[in-house]
Amino acid sequence: MPEKHLSTQFDIELNAVNAHLLEMGGLVESQVANAMKAFSTMDAEIASVVLEKEKDVNAYEINIDKECSEILARRQPTAKDLRLVLAVAKAVTNLERVGDEADHIASRIKKIVEVNAPFQINVAEIRIAGQMALGLLRRSLDAFARMDSKAAATIVADDIEIDNEFRGFVRKLISYMSEDPRIISTALEILFIAKAVERIGDHAKNISEFVIYVDKGTDVRHLPFEQLTQEANK
Which terminal CB of the chain, N or C, has fewer other CB atoms within 10 Å? Predict the structure, then answer.
């Protein structure tokens, strides 16, 4: 969390915007969890719950962006405080996009259920990747709350595993479609779901990189993993 200030009100504002970010994160976490539950059970009702919450996620994004803008305009923060406000603004954007990906998963599930298409595709990799992505999101928010750079670095490493699951599933899906063209329509819907899961992991990784930026003062977004780890452990 930010360092102590002469202005108690400034401290209150920084703590509040950080708390609102974590509240938004909790909502988005539940969106992803419900989306993956709907995928595991092909439950259109659970998918509908995910879609109904989109407006709440969007409202958080607008309100937190407004808070960040007001802090920048009124307080003109510097050093770590400035990095925190900028990181919150960027993290909010990533959380909103995670919510969008959860909505995309829910929409695809409803389409599959509505057309009652044949569903004979083994989607174990996507279930595994979905749980991994949800875990990364939770850990990234926890690392943000504690400004734990070392924990953030491990999240960046673990995102690679989600990418590997996605690539393996795509190869399997191509094989399924070549063997049975009747499932192509359903397979494409599942491919979009798989890509959404992969992107959720990417956004969790991005949030983790912002933690290192705030804590260490180094922008690590495009650094090789080895160099990112070195920065995180300084």
Answer: C
